[in-house]
Every structure is written in C-alpha cells, then in structure tokens.
Amino acid sequence: xxxxxxxxxxxxxxxxxxxxxxxxxxxxxxxxxxxxxxxxxxxxxxxxxxxxxxxxxxxxxxxxxxxxxxxxxxxxxxxxxxxxxxxxxxxxxxxxxxxxxxxxxxxxxxxxxxxxxxxxxxxxxxxxxxxxxxxxxxxxxxxxxxxxxxxxxxxxxxxxxxxxxxxxxxxxxxxxxxxxxxxxxxxxxxxxxxxxxxxxxxxxxxxxxxxxxxxxxxxxxxxxxxxxxxxxxxxxxxxxxxxxxxxxxxxxxxxxxxxxxxxxxxxxxxxxxxxxxxxxxxxxxxxxxxxxxxxxxxxxxxxxxxxxxxxxxxxxxxxxxxxxxxxx
Length: 328
Prior knowledge:
Blueprint: H1 2-21, H2 26-34, H3 44-53, H4 56-65, E1 71-72, H5 76-89, H6 91-105, H7 107-116, H8 123-132, H9 137-145, H10 156-174, E2 184-189, H11 195-199, E3 207-210, E4 214-216, E5 229-236, E6 246-247, E7 260-262, E8 266-270, E9 275-279, E10 282-291, E11 305-306, H12 308-311, H13 313-325
Parallel strand pairs: 5-10
Antiparallel strand pairs: 1-11, 2-5, 3-8, 4-7, 6-7, 8-10, 9-10
Helix pairs in contact: 4-10, 5-6, 5-10, 6-7, 6-10, 7-8, 8-10
C-alpha cells in the first residue's frame, strides 16, 4: 500500500516537472504551427473578373445577407459596402442570418458568435474573433482557394458559411475600428507541392493575387515553422491601399500574435527574385512584395446592386418584424 502511494506521488511529481518544462508560449506555438498557410495565387486579370463578378461563395453570402432580393451589377467590392451598411443598420438580423448557416455546419463558431456577440453591438468584433479561432478559418480559406477565379460549385458546408465569409470581408474592408497597418509584414508559405513550382508563380514585376484571407505578422516568426524548406514573403505596405492589412490583435483570440490580416483578393507586385537563405538547418526563399490597390476604394460610389434603391427598405422591414418577435 505504501509502495502504491509512493508511485502515485512520484508520477504526480513527474507530471508537474513536465508541465514546468514546457515553454511559456507552448499553446501559442502549437496554434502558430496550425495556422501556417498554404498558398493559392491568382493573376491580375482574375482580380479584374472578381471586381466585376465576385466569387461564388461571397456572392452567396451577399444574397443571404440581403435576403436574395438583389443581384450584382459589375462592382463586387462596392456591393460589399452596401452589405456592411445593412449589417450596421440592424446587427440583430445580420447575426441571425449568419448564425443560421453556422448552426448547421460549424457549431463551435455558432457558439462563439453567440458568446462574443451576445450584445449585438459587438458583432463586427465577434466576426473577426471567430476567424482567429481554430474552427472555421481553414474551411473558409480552403473554399476561397478552390474557386476557379470567380466560380466554385458550392457544397452545403460552403453555403452554410457564406454569410459569415461575406460579413467578415465587408468588415475588414469597411469597419473603421480596425486600424490599417502600413509597415512591413511577413508571411510564411509552406507549399503543398514542389517548392520550385511555387516559386515560379512569383515572377519579378508581375502581380499576384491571394483569393483567400491572408495572415501576416510584423516579424518573420521563423521559429514556429516546422518545414525544412519554405517561402518567406516580405511585404511593403507603405502605399495607401484599399487592401491594407488590418491589425486585428484587439479582436483576436491570440492577441500576442499581433496578427495583421489582408482581405480576400489582396494584390501584390513582385519586387525581387527569390533569395535562397540557409538558417539553422532550414532553407527558405525570401521574396519581396509590394501591396497594390491604391485606387480600389469604393466608399464614395453609389450602390452597384441592382434594385438596391427600391429594395433597401426590405431588410429594415424584416428587422422590425424579427425584433418584435424575438429577444436577442
């Protein structure tokens, strides 16, 4: 009996020593490794098509958030301003439409939305917070990368996250509480295929477009990279741009990461050829990019959604009906 008690005590002491031996940011390291991104790159001509026609996932979100009464008419990013105005005009209805899909396929994100936006005035902050969790962002960015530029056949799971995806993009582009960052950012890319094939996509003086949301940081964070070979993008954000990365630290689940998030479809000019660097038994290729998009802001244009002037009252009417019958 005494021997058994001694064994239990020794085992408990061993566990304590193991926990104390872990680095203070152990959970952060694991989270960083999970969030190392794969790359999907489109061309500048694809970006022009997205401007006109949108992307299937995000278009579906527009139709849901505007109650499917409106169609795009040649100005996708401008239409997102109209969507953002609808969200701001009645956050309760916007939240309801977002959570309906999440409840079907993303229950953890559904729970987060209801926790973080219990007060609907916190909706925009909650949308950003949910992206920094380990639940929905992989599916969201995976779906955006699966588009053939503007088109993707949507699965049920895509449809269920469409309203969230659109609301998040509109928030990143138009919510004034997210400060734009104009310093240098870094983004690590771990190619899923041959790295030489990936490097060929970054031809000097060409433009590259990232269709997914793109995370970055103020320093390289190379210590979190597990791959022995990867790409490091060093990005100049000094030019004022509609696509400037937003500092989301105050809204993040992991504020110590100091994450800077680029909206979907951010465009960059390739400023250098890749530089091969060896460091601590790892090999990486540094490429310098410069953020483009100085004249892309749509904030001063009229709504590009057909019928929007005639139908603007419909969301507000539904909001009134909903608010009378529900307590949020």
